């Protein structure tokens, strides 16, 4: 005999019929946020030579939602960052899970195959950037995933973020790898990235101002007016000081501390973690 195992849609493509009782059971599972897996078996010894699949079993599989997921998503939304879900699950199942973690139902893209995930990411990039009048202000799309199916989307995103406990394919396709499976690391990554960029800009501005002021003095610009000039030894020390100050400024990043998460829940006091 031949057996096929997969989603409800996949089984229906093999012309396996679902009775009303089973259909209601599958819909009930989906409304609980569970993924549906159906097993159909075909007896190859049909008299007319046709292959007809019959449902043999149905399973409901569910992943436990990470306890910190709701707080992390709420933190990003509070910062004005849109959150989306891209899933290969049934749309009803994906919508239920999205509602559990606070993702709007209109931001759920479900029922997509692995190669379609990258296409959806590209559509989000094009759609977001089309709303911006200037390239400098375009929206950056970040993708978080941990499975083999997420690898194409991780490569297509502006920033691909893989969970350290995920598959090797996903890790090799990502721009960043979170060593911790705790989703709060996403907040640390975003905050640390902004801190590093600010430090780079500060160092550049400081070095530029320093050299604009110091180089003319070292070249003797004040000599005609005051008959004074900077000794070459002091000029060399001043140049070394410029480099050392930038290095010291960069080393201050070692004092970085991860931000505390403060989420305001309706009817409750704000919580910090």
Automatic annotation (TrEMBL):
It comes from the Eukaryota. InterPro entries: ATPase_P-typ_cyto_dom_N, HAD-like_sf, HAD_sf, P_typ_ATPase. One of its GO terms (molecular function) is ATP binding. It holds the Pfam family Hydrolase. One of its GO terms (biological process) is copper ion homeostasis. The chain crosses the membrane at residues 204-226, 232-253. Its main location: membrane. One of its GO terms (cellular component) is membrane. It is found in: Membrane. Keywords: Membrane, Translocase, Transmembrane, Transmembrane helix. SUPFAM superfamilies: HAD-like (SSF56784). This is Metal-transporting P1-type ATPase CRD1. It comes from Amanita strobiliformis. The lineage of its organism: Eukaryota, Fungi, Dikarya, Basidiomycota, Agaricomycotina.
């Amino acid at each position: 005999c031949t057996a096929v195992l997969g989603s409800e849609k996949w089984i229906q493509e093999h012309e396996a019929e679902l009775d009303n009782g089973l259909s209601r059971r599958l819909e009930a599972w989906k409304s609980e946020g569970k993924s549906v897996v159906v097993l159909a078996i075909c007896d190859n010894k049909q008299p007319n030579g046709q292959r007809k699949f019959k449902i043999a079993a149905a399973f409901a599989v569910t992943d436990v939602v990470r306890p910190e997921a709701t707080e992390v998503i709420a933190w990003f939304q509070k910062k004005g960052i849109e959150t989306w879900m891209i899933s290969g699950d049934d749309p009803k199942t994906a919508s239920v899970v999205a509602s559990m973690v606070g993702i709007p139902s209109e931001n759920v893209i479900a029922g997509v195959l692995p190669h379609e995930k990258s296409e959806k990411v590209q559509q989000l990039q094009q759609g977001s950037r089309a709303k911006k009048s200037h390239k400098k202000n375009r929206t950056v799309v970040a993708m978080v995933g941990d499975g083999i199916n997420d690898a194409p989307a991780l490569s297509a995103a502006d920033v691909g973020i893989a969970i350290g406990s995920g598959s090797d394919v996903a890790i090799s396709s990502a721009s960043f790898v979170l060593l911790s499976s705790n989703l709060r690391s996403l907040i640390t990554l975003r905050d640390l990235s902004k801190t590093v960029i600010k430090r780079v800009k500060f160092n550049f501005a400081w070095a530029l101002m320093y050299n604009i002021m110091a180089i003319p003095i070292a070249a003797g610009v004040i000599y005609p007016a005051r008959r004074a000039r900077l000794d070459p030894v002091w000029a060399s020390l001043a140049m070394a000081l410029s480099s050392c100050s930038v290095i010291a400024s960069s080393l201050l990043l070692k004092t970085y501390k991860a931000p505390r998460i403060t989420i305001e829940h309706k009817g409750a006091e704000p919580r910090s973690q």
